[in-house]
Amino acid sequence: MRMVGLTTMVALLASCGTGPVRRVSEPAARIQQLTVHANGSWAVEVRIENFSSIPMRFDRFDLQLKLGEDAAGQLQAQPGLSIGPESADVVKVELTPSGAAKLAIADALSGGRSLNYSLKGDIFATPDEAKQRTYTIERSSALSPAPGLPGVMR
Fold first, then answer.
1. The domain 23-146 is classified under which CATH number: 3.30.43.10, 2.60.40.1820, 3.40.50.300, 2.60.120.10?
2. Residue 95: its pLDDT value, please?
3. Residue limits of the Late embryogenesis abundant protein LEA-2 subgroup domain (predicted)?
4. Rg (CA), the chain
5. CA distances from 152 to 88, 96, 114, 119, 147 (A)
């Protein structure tokens, strides 16, 4: 009995020394909201998601936005934003979209229809106490008109 107790105590002490697991996972980016301004430009809210078990600083991103098959423009920002473990935050980017993209959004808004989009590019992030890394992002989803909010897609 004494040997079992001693073995259990040693196992418990050994498990205390390892600490929490530091897992670095690829982040994700998606459009949380797209607002069409009266002058035709857009405010695009990009949601950056940190799936790591440690904080990460998101230094910059450069993402190509497509609506359907049409290039809409380049979403670029240098937020210098720290996001905690398994959390997310939003960065607003102003964009002057292509003519085809303006027409696609106007058509979707007027018809109350959703519109497929894709993001492709790089996010440059620094895991807590480490070197900066480049993560390649490819995301496809859809935006739909926000009820009661004219000119807003979510």
1. 2.60.40.1820
2. 98
3. 46-123
4. 22
5. 21, 16, 11, 19, 8
